[in-house]
Write a structure and sequence with these properties.
The chain is an alpha+beta fold. Helix content is about 25%, strand content about 35%.
Length: about 50
Amino acid sequence: MSEGGPHAAPEGFDYDVRRGGVFITHHGRQAGVLRGRRAAEFLDEVNDDPQ
């Protein structure tokens, strides 16, 4: 499979938990904010991911 295919690991993303939300950035620029149930689900997912 070539690099960047549909199953490639996302690169350049980071997240920070603050002020009651999960702030997602891509190469240092804000890409999204998760709050409530979706923020909790996201944190569960990244904590389970062996990357």
